[in-house]
């Protein structure tokens, strides 16, 4: 079984996230999604609308997702890859190059982001409406 992992906040879940998770699953047979906790989002400088528990429930409901785990730190990726015997790390190409060091542990795949949509854009447009 080929295992894939990806990481993210996934706030105000939208079709850009779904596109990413669909293509991440296509890289293997089993997709693990590490969802950033509320505390880690503070480290990332992200203010979330939905709590970790709410975002976890939403991501778990996606047909492509097999397991959701918490993302508590930048540094946990190698441990996760080893603990879950991950074959492929996937993330959007807004992160291109940032995680190349993980090539020592698994395949690293950067997928194109879906243009025109982002959580920030949704928040800004709702504020203006
Ligand atoms: N994404 C995408 N297209 C968009 C928006 C997001 O493909 N229009 C992808 C991002 O590239 C990322 C995933 O969806 O792979 C989740 O996006 P975010 O919730 O913004 O996650 P991010 O803050 O980038 O967290 O340790 C890694 C970080 O936790 C990544």
UniProtKB/TrEMBL annotation:
One of its GO terms (biological process) is teichoic acid biosynthetic process. Keywords: Nucleotidyltransferase, Transferase. Signal peptide: none annotated. Its EC number is 2.7.7.39. The keyword Nucleotidyltransferase applies. It comes from the Bacteria. One of its GO terms (cellular component) is cytoplasm. Residues 5-124 form the Cytidyltransferase-like domain. GO terms for molecular function: glycerol-3-phosphate cytidylyltransferase activity; metal ion binding. This is Glycerol-3-phosphate cytidylyltransferase.
């Amino acid at each position: 079984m080929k295992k894939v992992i990806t990481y993210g906040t996934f706030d105000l879940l939208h079709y850009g996230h779904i596109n990413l998770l669909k293509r991440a699953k296509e890289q293997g047979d089993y997709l693990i999604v590490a969802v950033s906790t509320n505390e880690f989002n503070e480290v990332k400088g992200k203010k979330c609308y939905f709590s970790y528990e709410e975002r976890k429930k939403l991501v778990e409901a996606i047909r492509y997702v097999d397991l959701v785990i918490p993302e508590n730190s930048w540094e946990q990726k190698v441990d996760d890859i080893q603990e879950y015997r991950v074959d492929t790390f996937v993330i959007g190409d807004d992160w291109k190059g940032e995680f190349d060091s993980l090539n020592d542990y698994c395949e690293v795949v950067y997928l194109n982001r879906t243009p025109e949509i982002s959580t920030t854009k949704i928040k800004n447009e709702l504020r203006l409406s």
